[in-house]
Amino acid sequence: MARTAAIAGHRALWFRGSDLRLDDHPALQAACRDARSFLPVYVFDPACFNTPTRYGDARKSSARRARFLLECVAALRRRLENHGSGLAVALGSPSEIVPIFCTSCEAVFVTEGFCSEEKREEAGVAWRLVHGKLKRVWGGTLYLPNDLGGFDPDNIPLGHNQFRNNCRSKGRIRDPIPEPLRLPPLPHVENLDASAEVSKALAFLPSLQDLGYSAVEAEAAHVDDPRGVMLWEGGEKAAWVRLQKWMFDDDHLKDYRDIQNGMLGEKYSSKLSPWIARGCISVRRIRSEVQRYEAARIQNNGTYWFHNLLEWRDRMIYIARSQGDRIFKLGGISGDQYSWPWHGTTEDLQAWKDGRTGEDLVDAGMKELLFTGYMSMRARHIVASYLIYELGVDWRHGAAHFEEHLLDYDPALNWVMWMLQTGVMGPKSGRSLGLSHFDAKRSYASQRKSLANHVPDRAYIRHWLVDNGREVAASISSHKGCLHQQHTLGQHALSVRSGGSAPRPVEHDKHENQMEQFCEHVPVQRSEGVGKGEDKQGRCEHADACNVGGPKKRRW
After folding, report:
1. CA distance 387 to 395
2. How far is the C-alpha of 406 from the C-alpha of 45, rounded, in Å?
3. Strand, helix or coil at 135?
4. What are phi and psi of 406, to 5 degrees?
5. CA dihedral over 438, 442, 445, 446, signed as positive or negative
6. How do beta strands 105-111 and 7-15 pair?
7. Among 350, 386, 380, which residue's Cα sits nearest to residue 365?
């Protein structure tokens, strides 16, 4: 595309995977203010999809999570077109694509990222813009950085109560911004070649195969497991439909404090997290709807707890903003990387990922994640605790696996929560909230009896391991060849040091036919397209395909 000088009043908005909406969008409002023309842009970076991370064979994104993102972007384009605009979509690196499309814009607006990776991406775009400037606008939290009640947004206290109480008493939450009735026109491009490129981008949307997934995995990603708690459809409209149904039509908000420990069905939580993570609905708008519910129906412990968790989310984001790359370090914020004897093996990690540890509740949760891209908050705490405290695997491998599969993956919430559960956020960071019959900071084995007596947990296990045993096998068969392929097994530890106590053997095929022992083991295949990962502590080369009797055990 030919480069031209910036034109006054020509603006662009670089949409990202966390702000895919029109309602309550501060960057959108800023970009459209006094604009003569306006170009919305979205860039799919292949490096963010079927590419290996530094943590074993975990990828940046599964095909299922990528599918949800594609749906969200497609829905955003339809909304923009209905407002007299459009969405230019391209495949490549944002630092290369955004400056090309926005070469004549005096300013390119973007919602400011929370974490270090997003900030580096912004810096790359800003450096390559020839004529215009990159204008970062904060959005996505209840409290803006200047409204935290005197807290420095780059030095947030780690304690939740301190953060919450100070923000409530001294801070303020601004009202959500209504979506614009109409948007400025798309820019007129005089250069014929450039005009053709823009026209093509306004109609282009990549497929899963364009993003690097095989045809088999792409096809499997479009099949929804019937055992999932619900079906998620990407986009702003779908988010509003879910909010209306759960909060008002089914009237579940008033009972939220009592039902939040559920694990089956769609009613125990709002299930808005995938849409929040992709920015299809803002937390300020959700809060205003909670207030509307309280004014029209009831204000009680359930509505209070919902407010509290929205504020908890803000705290996670500001911790990620203020701590930078430390949220990805083994020692976390505290720097205490030797707190645990990280003795876990590659086989331990793979058995956990596949849902074949021999612990029924853990296995049920991991199968739900693998086949649906979702797990309840309770299940997430339980499986994370098992990986850390029982298997002794470096917690970052678990966080990377969640990043690959969770539809509601958010870098701040995911990595900070794993830090919190591991205990590397410091002494004042607090504990996880509201889990009945389970302490996220204690070993799984010490709580096995309590968990076995918890009726919702038993029902959850039956759903994923017993009552649907045939469906489990069928689902695995349908995913064969697309979820996991053979990898070379290395013999390096998932830890920062060697030695320590020997790992507790992972149990295979131990399920019995009683309610508490449940069903026989079904092996799961492994992800294809996953390369080798390496970090500062050692190289992690992974795994031969699952054998019928489980993989052969090898030590580091």
Report:
1. 7
2. 19
3. strand
4. -70, 125
5. negative
6. parallel
7. 380
Do the beta carbons of residue 333 and residue 157 sit within 8 Å?
A: no
CA neighbours within 13 Å on the CB side: how many for 242? 23
CB count within 10 Å of CB 222 equals 10
CA 39 to chain centre: 28
Give the global pTM: 0.84
| SS3 state of residue 106 | strand
Contact 71, 62 (CB under 8 A): no
Both tokens assigned to 452: 């076995």
Please report, as a single letter, which amino acid is at residue 508: H
Question: Is the CB of residue 446 less than 8 Å from the CB of residue 385?
Answer: no
Cβ partners under 8 Å of residue 551, min gap 6: 347, 350, 351, 489, 543, 544
Dump pLDDT digits (tens) for 332-385: 988 876 666 789 999 999 999 999 999 999 999 999 999 999 999 999 999 999
Share the mean pLDDT of the chain: 83
The predicted-structure confidence for 220-255, as pLDDT tens digits, reads as follows 999 999 999 999 999 999 999 999 999 999 999 999
CB atoms within 10 A of CB 67: 22
Measure the CA–CA gap between 444 and 379, rounded to whole angstroms: 12
- Cα separation, 248 vs 552, in Å, equals 52
Residues contacting residue 192 through CB under 8 Å, at least 6 positions apart:
none
In 3D space, the residue among 294, 470, 479 whose CA is nearest the CA of residue 370 turns out to be 479
Q: What is the dihedral of CA 456, 457, 463, 466, to 10 degrees?
A: -130
